[in-house]
């Protein structure tokens, strides 16, 4: 699903954020734009999970919710597959961002982002900034993969190495001689691999711990 | 000690008495039966120096009529002297029952004539003496060989080996009576021998196994030697002779016979828990010399050798018997408690059997070892059982101690692991404590100070929103820098560290209308670590802040390289602002930056003018390959 800022139909956004001032500020900032419309908001995990039944394009969720983790909301959105989830982060740090990506988020935005609306659209399009530490961690997690694992392609590795040195999307595209759009595609692919991989690991761990029993067919 | 011995005696006595009763009861019963056999009491014996060729042909006796009273025989060269025993008896044809002749034992070279007719022959009467073992002799008398009235029986035996020149009482009578007695004698002496050889072989394997694989000790080693000697001597008693040349057979026989005595001495000594002393060594050396002497004599002349060997064996038995008895008593009193009272009981049975053989030989003046063989075999079996028990016990105790050891090792390992974990936890705790302190200090210096000043600036009425916003933003930025500096990927690689700073600072600069020129190439440098990284971040942040706030710059350039010799990270921050006076407020801020640089072992060079300011920071770094993982740094 891609959300294009130039579309006549504004992107429908749901917000899950427990801090009322932040939620209000976000709503105000987003609704100020013509291409974004906040169609609902929730202040907890439970209400958030209920809210995503509403028709929408993007779900924007905080992670630290009073009754649980916003990652559950991200997972619910990702498993429905009709829309994209982006995560609100304060620091854009490795732990928060990678957890969100593993849960299926397509990106993140900083709560103090100067242009929140732009950030939402970017995140929804899979164009969240890949900070150097996150790039390094992505490389570490996905590089030593077994043949069956969704390993990184050489191009993806080059791209992540660019990000690891602090280069932006544009600079990376220039350096690698590819288009900006291709860069975003690569990033989305890497994110998807991480999510798939983490799900695979979760299933593997569950099987190993006896939570899931695989039925052997004769 | 005495009470202990008595207690043991009491414990041992009952089985000994029981088995002794059984043994003597059996022996006496057999002897009684033996005595009831029809016995010949009148024998005429004649020792002839030279066999008569008319009586004996070149190699063997032939069936031929003998002149009854002419027993003078001339002997060709190389023939052994022999003795002819003559016995006359009356036979009534009207009351015929099958008759037989039975001799308790004779040399294997023997012949029996009845009324001049050859009834039995074995061996040869000339060199080499193929078979000189003692064996029971039984001959059925055919009815046609008997004559009504007086009959003459001649028994011709090779004299030499018997030594004492006397023949055991022999029997002529009903075959039905004599045959069982003969069968019993051959059973005890010959038929049973292959089985005892098998027993010795098994015992040998067992004791060798224990000696070699379980390091069973001297007892088992000597036992192995003993059964080896027994197993070697034994086949000479088999019903059929082993196909060996006479010289070899006799050599083996005497060597093994004396070997039995020698090995028994060592065995008994070991059994008594003692080392071989002078006495034992003397006996062993004497035995070796005796064997050597017999072998030399045997090789020189077989007949002389056999004669000599028999004498030496007799002397050796006399010498070793008291020694063995002494050692047995020592063993009984000693530490090697033979595990079973039945072992002693069976030994006493062996003694009884040997004693019986000696007593039985007294009247003929020759000790024929009839039952001793069985006793020895029994003893070996008994000791094998003891050995198996003992070895089994040893194994199980070994296993138990092994298990115990394993358990102890496991416990120790666990303790060590716990100690190690504790130490590591302590170490980690200390590292974490240090890191915690540092982070607290960093937060105190940075955000703490900013928030405090922010609070002081908040006065009722006057709300400098812009300033507060700016101060809050700086606090948040500083917090971000702290968090970033703690990331392992950042601490491990200056390129990532600077890249991260760029990602953080560029949007902020852009917000303030400034462009960033980024020219960083710091590959190949080792990690800076969290602390250095944060100091560099703050220094750079301050430089950026100065450029934005005071210098009113439009462009900011950050470049970084790695210089070799000495390896340094060189970072330059250049702006196109208006510069500042070194004594101004900004100048004092520079002192702060210098202190930061000094704290991380670096230097800061500043040049400022009306067209711009240039800061150059140099920080020593490790080469990439020597970089230490961030986690290991305190």
Question: What are the key terms here?
Answer:
heterodimer; A: 218 residues; alpha/beta; 5-stranded parallel beta sheet; two-stranded antiparallel ribbon; 9 helices; disordered N terminus; B: 634 residues; alpha+beta; 5-stranded mixed beta sheet; disordered C terminus
Radius of gyration of chain B (CA) equals: 55 Å
Percent of residues in β-strands of chain B: 15-25%
Largest sheet data of chain B: 5 strands, antiparallel
Average the pLDDT over all residues of chain A and give the rounded result.
82
Largest two-chain interface: A-B, 20 and 24 residues
Number of strand segments of chain A: 7
Q: What is the string of SSEs of chain A from the N terminus onward? A: EHEHEEEHEHEHHHHH
Number of strands of chain B: 13
Overall mean pLDDT of chain B: 76
Helical amount among residues of chain A, as a percent range? 40-55%
Low-confidence stretches of chain A: 1-5
Could you tell me how far the N terminus lies from the C terminus of chain B, measured between alpha carbons in angstroms? 71 Å
- Separation of termini of chain A? 40 Å
Structure summarized in a few sentences:
Chain A is α/β, with parallel strands linked by helices. Chain A has helices at residues 20-31, 45-51, 70-80, 94-103, 116-124, 132-142, 154-164, 169-176, 180-208, and strands at residues 11-16, 36-42, 58-62, 64-65, 68-69, 84-89, 107-110.
């Amino acid at each position: 699903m891609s959300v294009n800022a130039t579309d006549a139909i504004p992107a429908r956004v749901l917000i899950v954020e427990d801090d009322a001032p932040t939620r209000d500020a976000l709503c105000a900032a987003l609704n100020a734009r013509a291409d974004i419309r906040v169609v609902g908001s929730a202040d907890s995990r439970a209400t958030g999970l209920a809210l995503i039944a509403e028709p929408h394009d993007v779900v924007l969720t905080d992670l630290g919710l009073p009754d649980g983790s916003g990652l559950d909301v991200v997972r619910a959105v990702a498993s429905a597959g009709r829309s994209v989830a982006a995560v609100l982060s304060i620091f854009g740090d490795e732990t928060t961002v990678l957890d969100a990506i593993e849960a299926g988020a397509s990106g993140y935005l900083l709560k103090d982002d100067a242009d929140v609306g732009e950030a939402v659209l970017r995140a929804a399009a899979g164009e969240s900034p890949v900070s150097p530490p996150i790039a390094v961690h992505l490389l570490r997690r996905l590089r030593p993969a077994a043949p069956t694992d969704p390993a990184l392609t050489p191009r993806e590795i080059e791209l992540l190495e660019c990000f690891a040195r602090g280069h932006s999307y544009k600079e990376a595209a220039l350096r690698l001689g590819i288009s900006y759009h291709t860069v975003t595609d690569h990033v989305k692919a890497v994110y998807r691999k991480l999510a798939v991989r983490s799900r695979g690991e979760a299933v593997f761990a569950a099987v190993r711990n006896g939570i899931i029993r695989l039925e052997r067919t004769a | 000690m005495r009470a202990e011995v008595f207690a043991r005696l009491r414990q041992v006595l009952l089985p000994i008495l029981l088995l002794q009763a059984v043994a003597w009861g059996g022996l006496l019963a057999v002897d009684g039966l033996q005595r009831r056999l029809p016995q010949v009491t009148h024998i005429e014996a004649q020792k002839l120096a030279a066999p008569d060729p008319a009586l004996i042909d070149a190699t063997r006796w032939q069936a031929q009529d003998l002149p009854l009273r002419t027993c003078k025989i001339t002997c060709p060269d190389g023939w052994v002297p022999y003795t002819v025993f003559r016995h006359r008896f009356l036979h009534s044809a009207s009351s015929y029952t099958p008759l037989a002749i039975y001799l308790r034992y004779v040399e294997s070279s023997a012949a029996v004539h009845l009324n001049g007719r050859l009834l039995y022959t074995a061996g040869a009467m000339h060199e080499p003496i193929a078979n000189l073992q003692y064996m029971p002799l039984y001959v059925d008398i055919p009815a046609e060989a008997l004559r009504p009235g007086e009959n003459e029986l001649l028994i011709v035996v090779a004299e030499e080996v018997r030594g004492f020149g006397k023949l055991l009482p022999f029997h002529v009578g009903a075959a039905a009576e004599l045959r069982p007695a003969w069968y019993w004698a051959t059973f005890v002496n010959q038929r049973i021998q292959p089985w005892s050889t098998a027993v010795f072989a098994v015992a040998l394997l067992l004791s060798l196994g224990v000696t070699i694989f379980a390091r069973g000790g001297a007892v088992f080693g000597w036992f192995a030697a003993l059964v080896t000697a027994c197993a070697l001597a034994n086949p000479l008693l088999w019903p059929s002779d082993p196909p060996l040349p006479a010289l070899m057979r006799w050599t083996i026989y005497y060597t093994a016979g004396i070997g039995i005595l020698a090995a028994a001495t060592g065995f008994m000594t070991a059994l008594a828990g003692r080392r071989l002393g002078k006495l034992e060594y003397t006996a062993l050396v004497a035995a070796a010399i005796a064997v050597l002497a017999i072998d030399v004599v045997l090789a020189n002349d077989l007949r002389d050798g056999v004669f000599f060997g028999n004498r030496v064996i007799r002397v050796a038995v006399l010498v070793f018997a008291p020694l063995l008895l002494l050692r047995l008593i020592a063993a009984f009193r000693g530490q090697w408690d033979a595990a079973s009272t039945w072992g002693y009981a069976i030994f006493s049975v062996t003694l009884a059997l040997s004693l019986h053989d000696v007593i039985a030989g007294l009247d003929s003046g020759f000790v024929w070892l009839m039952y001793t063989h069985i006793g020895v075999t029994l003893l070996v079996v008994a000791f094998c059982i003891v050995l198996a028990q003992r070895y089994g016990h040893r194994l199980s105790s070994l296993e138990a101690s092994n298990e115990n050891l394993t358990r102890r090792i496991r416990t120790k390992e666990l303790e060590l692991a716990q100690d190690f974990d504790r130490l590591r936890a302590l170490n980690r705790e200390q590292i974490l404590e240090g890191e915690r302190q540092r982070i607290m200090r960093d937060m105190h210096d940075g955000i703490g100070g900013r928030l405090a000043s922010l609070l002081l600036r908040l006065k009722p009425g006057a709300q400098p929103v812009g300033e507060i916003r700016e101060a809050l933003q700086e606090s948040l930025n500083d917090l971000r820098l702290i968090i970033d500096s703690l990331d392992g990927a950042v601490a491990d690689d200056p390129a990532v560290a600077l890249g991260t700073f760029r990602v953080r600072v560029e949007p902020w600069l852009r917000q303030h209308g400034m462009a960033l020129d980024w020219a960083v190439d710091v590959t190949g440098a080792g990690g800076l670590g969290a602390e250095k990284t944060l100091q560099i971040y703050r220094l750079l942040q301050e430089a950026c802040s100065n450029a934005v706030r005071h210098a009113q710059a439009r462009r900011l350039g950050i470049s970084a390289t790695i210089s070799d010799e000495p390896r340094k990270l060189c970072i330059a921050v250049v702006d196109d602002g208006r510069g500042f006076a070194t004594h101004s407020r900004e100048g004092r801020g520079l002192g702060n930056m210098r202190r930061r640089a000094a704290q991380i072992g670096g230097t800061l060079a500043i040049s400022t003018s009306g067209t711009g300011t240039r800061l150059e920071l140099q920080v020593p770094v490790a080469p990439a390959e020597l970089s230490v993982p961030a986690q290991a740094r305190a």
